[in-house]
Amino acid sequence: MSRFNASGILRKRQFRYLTGVTPDIFQEMVSRLRPLWEKVCRNKNRSGRPYGVGGLDDHLLVLLVLYRCHITQDFLGLLYGVDKATICRSLRRIEPLARCVLGVKRAIKVTEEEARALLIDATEQRIERPKRCQKRYYSGKKKCHCIKNEIITTEAGRIVCVSKSVPGTVHDLNLRRQGQPLPENARAYADSGYQGYQNDHPELDIPYKSSKKHPLTKDEEEYNRGLSSFRVRVEHAIRRIKTFRILADRFRYPRPSHTTKFAIAAGIANIIAGF
Questions:
Q1: Domain limits for position 173
Q2: How far is CA 249 from each of CA 88, 125, 242, rounded to the nearest angstrom?
Q3: Domains contained in the chain, number
Q4: Do 159 and 208 reside in the same domain of the chain?
Q5: Tens digit of pLDDT for each residue in 1-54?
Q6: Are residues 94 and 172 in the same domain?
Q7: Nearest to residue 63, comparing CAs of 86, 41, 82, 87?
Q8: Minimal CA–CA distance to 265: which of 239, 231, 235?
């Protein structure tokens, strides 16, 4: 029997500190995952070894603790009384289900009201220095090797789209053009990194840029301040995602897995915020 499980964390504050969610939200996530989990288990019963860390509750707990605390799989295995390979298999089982059920998708699905204001921003995360293609991942802006994601939210803060993870050298504008196009009737707000995307989507508001010959007028400065204040909502959404330390600290897992982990964390952030 596992020495560490969801029912064993009795204090609500302790549970939230370790997982990033309250017990009520945890049970809601379990309920959402249960139908797909049972379907997978029915197929699993035909062959293969039994699950080593318990049922759905424990698999989800493994994922949340790993994402929230960013501890090693060896240490998490110690808590469960299993080896690292068992924890790794647990993650390989639960992550695809969590991405399918809980994760934010790449397709942009919004109501007409939500389309009146979509907020766009990009965020980077440090990675270990790659053995190959180092220049591809080195960001001159951040002065480190990193990967980048784009996030789109509504005015209320609901995360409606996250991009795949790309090397840190990819410009914000190119990242936007590689992703899903915005709805035709959508009004979007972004920072100066998206200069030029107006050609693709005319309904885009970005800050005015100044130059030595053409400094900003007072009206333009006031507009920029207002836009920055309005766009803070998308920055708050990024902060909610990065409360999961696996996406805030230096990323130490294989880079191809980052897209899945980012989408899952964004989906959990939506659930926590009540969306």
A1: 114-272
A2: 20, 7, 9
A3: 2
A4: yes
A5: 445 666 566 577 889 999 999 999 999 999 999 999 998 888 765 555 556 677
A6: no
A7: 87
A8: 239
